[in-house]
Protein 1
Amino acid sequence: MQQRNESIGIIYGDVGSTEFNFIVDGHNLRKFDYVTAPHKEGYILAQVMDVRRYSDLKFQDATTLRSDEALPHIKSNVSAYADVIGYRDKSGYLQAPRTPFDAGSRITLAHEDLIRHVLGLHHDKSNGAYLGLLKGHNLPVYLNIDALVQKHICILAKTGGGKSYVCGVLVEELFKKKIPMVIIDTHGEYMSLTKPNSDRKDKKNMEKFGIKPRQYADQLVGFSPLESRGNIKHLTLNGMNLEAREIIDLLHAKLSGPQIGVLYQSIKEMKEYKQRYTIRDIIEAVTRSKSNARWNVIASLESLDSIGVFSEKGTTTDELVRRGRCSIINMKGVPPDIQDVVVARLTKELFDDRKAGKIPPFLLIVEEAHNYCPERGFGTAVSSHMLRTIASEGRKFGMGLCIVSQRPAKVDKNIISQCNTNIILKVTNPNDLKAIIQSVEGLTNQTYNEIQRLPIGVALISGASIQIPIMMDVRTRETSHGGKSVTIFKDGETIDFKPKIPKAPAPPPQPKEHVAEKSVKKNNVTEKARAVNRVAKRLGWVDTDDPDKTIELLTEEALKMKENVYKYLDSLAQLGKNFCYETDPKCIKCPMKDGCRYRASQGRKKGFFKR
């Protein structure tokens, strides 16, 4: 298969069976090029890992030369270091030579047929996903679809390294093969798959990869736990007849032994009189318990019920998983604790129905996976257990898993180790690099250094049908990329940016007897709420006179800043009590006077700032 006979160098020095050095004969050889070396067992494929130029210009000679002085003739030679990949035996298995190479053997550039044969790049459009070109060659890289979906995938990169871009390329390829997908879209990036790529630079690159702009709107359906808006449907979870163990798995606050006993006993007693029951029914049943442990159980159940995503029916799994369709679970604007519960419950329903054969085989893609399956010591998530189960057992039942993360060190190592296909882009954090090397098979300490130097758009691929890790130029997206960084400074001018405050989930339905009480409370505004509204409006934080609306907006801001909501509101109430009176406020003594719009406006009226 090796038909190029032009020699580019000669092996020299001490030679082993897994690596060798060779002098380069006037050829523009580059790092990561593939070469072949003759051996007793046939032509052996190797990869250039380093290229160095040696010269007779010594340090002492260089120090005597002036910057404006003409350089003398410098004699130099180029040497390359190559790692041996191996050859295919008669049975098609990759083998490494068992004896050293001969010094003086002539090295030639590897032919693409040999590269494809030895590396295992034998898949094509009919059974593969086209992700890009082999680095330095016009050789398409197709990954086996079955290996991708059945044996799990992980895509790892630093922030801005292109992980979501590569995942988008993969999704485009799976669309073409009609593979069902469910994407946990933490930041709402994947709805852009409905739009063709209109970027001018990308259109030029498309010729190199042999693709054209395309959109997949007819194969994509969006869901959100918040509410229906536009083409996005409202995602709800089935909250009927939850068992005690299911509730315990969804609670962030773990229950003690007596509390678990109260929960089990309450559900058991309720089942004797009700065939169908909701979380609200469970709360009422626990309230009737005489145990003192019931109070913490009630608080935990109220917290679970208040997220507003449980309903009597819920979105069915066959609405989410259909052949040729991708369902995107858009989590943009959803609080992290609600995201965690949604992922935990949704993945359990999908896994149970896949095992029962109610839905076809599919791929579950989890963006920002470190939030949903963190490594021990980096926080907890109620969805961790279910994702670990899918990683270890999903292959047997036809449920593939693809995790995408910018912090490999924070992702559960058990899940990464279960992924047979690894797509790694640029990573520089030492802890993340260490986690990748320890969890991904086939990577060496030398790979550790190369991952740090990967340019944007180049990925290291390990696993699938490929025998050894390879470097690949990721192809251009056919669709628009929704994960682009936001431009905040352009042509010398800052761009006005007004953040949109996401709407909170709809509150859970209340029993009929509480409706009248709720309407009374709405008009019963406390003095503290009025003080908070007054202070926030004078500071310019809100523009409403409705204390209830102000409390709602400030609560969302406190949650975004991860502040204690009531301490945050209380600090504003204290300002209203001590300084910001309704009439004649003590602005001069107020600690917030420098940023207060009210004080500034009063100062202009009285002429304080005319100097």
Protein 2
Amino acid sequence: MDPIYVTGHRNPDTDSIVAAMAYAALRNAVGDREYEAACLGHVSDETQLVLDRFGFQPPKRIHNMYTQVHDLDFDTPPLLSAAVTVGRAWKVLLGQENINAVPVTNEDGTLYGMLSREDVASYNMEQVNVGVLEDVPLFNVLSVLEGRVLNAAGENIDTIRGEVTIALPQEQENLLFNKPDSIVICGHQPDMIRRALEMNVNCLVVCQAELEESLRDMQTSTCIIATPLDAYRAARLIFQSTPVGRICATEGIVCFHLEDRVDEVKEQVLRFRYPCYPILDENEKVAGVLTRYHLLRPRRKRVVLVDHNEASQSVPGLEEAEILEIIDHHRLADIQTSNPIYVRNEPVGSTNTIIAGMFQDRGLMPSAKMAGMMAAAILSDTVMFKSPTCTERDIRTAERMARIANISLEELGREIFSVSGDHRTAEDLMFSDYKEFHIAGHNLAVAQVTCVDSPAMLERKEEFLAVMEKTAKEKGFSMMILMLTDVLLEGTQIIFLGDDETISQAFNVHPKDNTAFLPHIMSRKKQVIPMLSALWG
């Protein structure tokens, strides 16, 4: 069964990643085995410290939720080698009711060509007029004729070619086969057989008859084959010994890959209108075939959103996915669904506080290591309980998780917020916890770095401003704010691009040189965004 991805927002913080892991663990523990934690961006140093501290690996990183070819119920017919006989390939085609062609592959599984029913029909009609078999492996001929080699000369021959002739009893010799480059098909006709052997025709096919010892021992270069088939069937089937690699289509084949987006595939299908298309994997090996029918009802990817409910903060392609649940503690935003879903949105300081309650609802205790991570996530998102978003419930939940994990919240908090950003680039820091917003016609982004050394971080102002100017220009933002939230100072130093008057009116401060200190401002969600929203109406 396809996984259900549980994922937080882009540029995920500790609360976002741990929430995805905790909720997936909860659902898997109660029997829903298809839930899988995922993340949308780089794991920050702080989050990595928490993961390492409790012995977890980062969740799988996913890049989009677009419906792709591997989400389709495409067909996986048998793959034919280019050396397979036309006869055997035709049996395979007859067994595939829903598709008109099958892939022909090289030895390494890569695509050689496509063989359709039309290819086989065209080849058969051509042989009616031509009647010449071109250098076919002996093994192929023996297979289609159910035959066996009768003489020593035949054992030394590997390929057979020539004009196929049925040697009927006739009085006029000029109407019989008259050149060595022939394949002669006959029955119990000793005179015909002798003449063919004396002429050293390429191959003699004896149908439903025994060959006299004297004829079998004649000195000849002719390969003698005995078959239980009658002459008419033998004459038809011998042409089925040709390898399919000679008749299949090899030029102008339109292929798709498993990672291709379905909407792009539809455009190609409408353009070319072939009956079916080969599908290749990441190693260019054939994975199956696609027809128009498969595009009618594609399976959409399934996702649970945690710690966000805004499209601009979520995974690209979310509009093509099926959202099953939302678990969040932010304002309600713009995500829409086609069906009713389960939504749990509560005014607490951390998504992990909500998920801890969901563990309780199901009568399940998180493991000691998971509880430790959840405690760390609550400490991180509430800035050690100093954020205005923090509630008594967050504190009680963190304390309970700490008791389960047998850890000290104070020591854990100091460890989390002591992670230094000195070794990281300004761009890494800017986008480690970065969100975009659309408020009353204003497009802006607010990034946040929680630290214990905001004065040292402020010394890198020009680096941050350079990154902000580049981003604002690329995305058309009217404002960008970087929050340097200082746990020790219990306030936030902001670096911003935009109108000074907006910052002054929204936060009642006097900005200078693109900076301002906001005392007691710790939360982007509950303080910064609401103040800007109130200003802009």
Protein 3
Amino acid sequence: MNKNLKSVGLLVSLLFCGSFTAGAAIQEPVDYVNPYIGNISHMLVPTFPTIQLPNSLMRIYPTRSEYTRELLDGLPMVVTNHRERSAFRMSVTQSPSFRPIIGTNWDQEKITPYDYRVQIADNSIDVHLAVSHQSAIYELSFLDTSKPATVIFYSEDGLMQVDGKKVSASQSLSENMKIYFSGEFDVAPVQAGILQNGQISKDGKKEGENVCCALSFPAGTKKVSFRYGISLISTEQAQKNLSREQGIAFNIAKVAAEGRAEWNETLKNIMVQGGTEDEKTVLYTSYYRTFERPVCLSEEGRYFSAFDGKVHEDNGKPFYTDDWIWDTYRAAHPLRALIQPEKQENIIESFLRMAEQMGTNWMPTFPEMTGDTRRMNSNHGVSMVADALYKGLKVDAKRAFEYCRKGIEEKTLAPWCGNPAGWIDEFYKEHGYIPALCKGEKENDPNVSDFEKRQPVAVTLGTSYDEWCLSRIAEYLGDKDLQQKYLKLSYNYRNVWNPETKFFHPKDKDGKFIENFDYRFSGGIGARDAYDENNGWTYRWDVQHNFADLVDLMGGREDLVRNLDQTFTESMGRGKREFYTQLPDQTGNIGQFTMANEPSLHIPYIYNYAGAPWKTQKRIRQCLKTWFRNDLMGIPGDEDGGGLTSFVVFSSIGFYPVTPGFPVYNIGSPLFSDIKVNVGNGKFFHIIAKNCSDENKYIQSATLNGKPLNRPWITHEEVKNGATLILNMGNRPNKEWGAAEGNEPPSAQKL
């Protein structure tokens, strides 16, 4: 490890309070990362223990569907889509019979963010893997040297080529996209060729489906190393990427040390003292998760884009993709805008390039490696643009406004669809809401998915927020007419507000609320006939941009607090089996509140808008302690590449961006007594939570830069300027702190 980096790591480790006894091993930030947290899911998809440098193209995790699966399907080479797809496969065997992919049992597995160790084949083969950004290296050790060893490479659909110690391959990822690898062993095999009918042939090249090559090493072989580069441009570029990152030598220790140093350099942007060892582990593991996506595709100044099937120059601005924006706009993008603003600028520029490359100039919504899949609902790319502009990031606002506007107004609002606007879109423009189908009424818009449905309330609420973000960008550009136009449209959520029940309620095309409607269970699987993945209790609070108006709709502050309390106390109404059969995304319950799905992340903070900040402090601690833990089931729902864990990062250090597009943060209740966030230019945002503990979770008083602070929010400018926030904590709430009218966080201006 570089001496200077090692010194920095030591300094950082000493900042952790009371964590170590004399003689104990020094803990650096990366040592607190536990990639196994959440590897067993509560209901749907678990986390995967990803080996990857921050936002790198080379992503790897063990080739198993879940942690409890007994067998690995060979060894991994690269993940090509977050938690869903991988390319290539490598199998290692000492058996005389060969198959394209060899399943093997595994044991003694150890994973860090930068390397992977495991014993396979009944503990007879040791595997060690270390990664760089666009390359990796395997070291394979054989305990039984009386047998020969064979390494097999597999491509599902592509070209495979082997020549002595060298192996290269391609695999199709889509109609217009391939991924390539080029690699080499440190020792020559005694036999190498294409695998055909279970035998190693003399052929060195084959193209097609399920192609394999195999390389055999003689009895007596104790260890072989294989290193390889990957590319989306060509095999030749893959070899260049390998040479650039690893040089000439086969040195797995060097690759691992460099990866460790880079993770420490990244994670030390947040430094904490106090709290428990488990709380630090959950914090740093959550922070590590936020770097899984998006991934950087730039290779020596060029990148391949599946959005038009071409190779482009990046002109000094790296190109990123694989970002499920519906999940990540709420907290992951704001976290990056705060701590890594230059990277966030490049990510937004990447979105704008995608819009142009697709030929529609529509802002993407689910940009993946293979293009924009248009999953989920709404067009929340506009949110990260508005948020970035008002936090001082460099964004082409005029270009971004137009692409966001086109994505909202020219593309259909029908979920999971990338077609031009259709019938429901014209209805929305005329009436200000997406109509719900009445019982027995047949779908008449071909853009609507049979399974995903119209999601009418969710789409109306999400689009209202998106249109508010458009108004913010228009205001930034100085266009008052457009600002007022989209501000007015941002109130469209009122069109589905039921004043009698005080819920957002699906309404038919004739303007009538759907009758006999149950806010817990109506709407079918995932409540998609009305909402999306969550029921009416979650979407009751989905007005991110205008809680001041929601207070009025509820009948005042006391009514809003009472209804918010009821969300956390309302029973599930059915047994868990029935509830989760219909609403499998709505796990992690506290009453009807779900900690497991992104539309709920801001809900505990809404008390700040109604004069009860102490209840936010109580709920945040409750949510973190109950649902985010240092164990295999320590994440309550799908962790969509920072979707959930960015909430944990923010909430653990005491503040949260409830409304991306406003440069402000709501104050919660930090877990740690001393927190430093590196905000760039040599400045730190410093939070001191005096007497902070598991019991002392309530703010008694606060000062900002030595002056009394009586509001439960802070501005982005205050944070970026390197402020010091001191919170005096106690075990009973101070119900007056931050509660006075006029001290609540800002909301959209009144019409």
Protein 4
Amino acid sequence: MGDLMGISVNTISAKDGTEILEIQSNGKVYRMNSAYRPHAEAEKFAVQYQGLEEGSVLLVFGYGNGIFPRALMKACSGHMKIIFYEPSTEILHCIKNIDEELQQIFSEKGYLVAPEKRKDDKRVYLTGQFPKLLEQLVTYSNYNKIVYTALPKYRDIFPEEYKHFQELIAYRINKFKSNIATAKRMGHDAVVNNIRNLRRIPESYCGDSFAGIFPEDMPAVIVSAGPSLEKNVQDLKRAKGKALIVCTDSAIKYLLRQNIMPDLLVTVDPLKPLYLFDDEQIDGIPIVGSPDMNYRILEKLPHSKAIFASSENTYVQQLYREAGHNVERLESGGSVATLAFSLCRYWGFSHIILVGQDLALADRQRYAGRGVLPYDEGCVLLEVEDIYGETAYAPKDYYSYLKWFEQAIAAHPEVRVIDATEGGAKIAGTEIMTLQEALSEYEESGFDFGEYMKTVKPAFSDTEKEEVNRQIRESRNRLSLLLKKLQEGIALSERGLALCRQGGNGQQLFQPVDAQIQEICEYYNGLEESFFVQREIDATCLEEFAGLFEGEKAETKGEQYANLLKYFKILRNVVREVYNMWDEQDK
């Protein structure tokens, strides 16, 4: 029995002798299982999810004493993943031999999310890790197969926790849909940027060179372009010498007009407009980004040192890995400010100050220094609480960024985050104060980032630069060879179809064709350059491509060859496009 979270938990006996849970909360008593036949009750509850299609993910709010989870795992065994989210430590504590209980229930399809775990069980996640687990489990092939529910009585006892549970799931699914839409809208440009930015790789710096170099108590100030920046921009001058000033791309020209020179400029958007970088003072400020960033920015700023600090590009990751560096894929919520936040955490900052991070409209104004700008009258505005406790309105993209910040802050309680925006939406988990108050808490750091940049070495030595350039040139040849192999794959698939039409039977007849097709597929899958091809597929023909091998498998040999023929034709067209991009940047 206990009283954490305002509840007390007892175990009592049902009529059939089974131990069941009884919870007291807010003056009410809740019996969590049937007092007569708890196992039959659980089986009846579980059967409704037995018909969910293959590949579904079932998210269950509550774990209880294990009776319902056992029934669910049995009913849904083998064809879906099930995650149980238990909000109460007290309920977990009332289960005898919980480690054996979990081992008995969980197969490779089951997970538990809980406020604590007894030992290092890979299938048990802490509550703060739930967003990360969702990120792993929700994929392109199953994001529309996510189902969530709650065990009986759980919604009544834990209404706020259930609301949070729902919000996390909705955020992940909506984020995935947004990523798909972004891939279609920006994906092709991102591929172009990834290829064109290869020219900057040999002279670049790697993000891991800056991890852990900053004084322990030195804060980072992330400056965004929200309208409230106009209120406190002059206070940023006091940050020089105390903090690392990290400026987002939309805020840079406004800062420079106020005679404030940031330490770093962060940009990531593949389509970021070039007019944001028109001020000649920008050329020379170190730029942090990913290979996705608009390549024209680096061309426009030839004296700015390029720091690639985040990438999911396996080709680029391998280039850095061979030089002893590691380019991680930093968590990002879709905006340059969220990437800057992840960057500061990666570099070891335990104190982060947010400025200009309004995440809500202020009198129809989106950005500092640009006056009132029109926005789409048809855009959806969501109500949010501002830092003063009043109602504010956030467009859907701002709301998404707001929720990302709140989840990131909750997942990293060791990082102190101060919201010195002095306006805009309230970000849960932050300390709200003015920028002047925030900066007064910190002493001079004695660390000069500009001087450090003069001494830090690029990621590649002269010999390594030559090797990188050689590999990039060689990639063009591999893509050319891949085109020839894909053309062979088309011919082989047509040959297989012809054999089927001729009434061919027996594995021996098809074996030579299948073996050559398998060799072509293995060649493609083994190429680092396949990253660029897959990104172009995501941007231009994802549904058509993925649909070939999703759902039920082709039943006949003829259907298999017909799908392979479509597969090779689509892949050939995409590879030809990527080859042309490569050929263009090679000139």
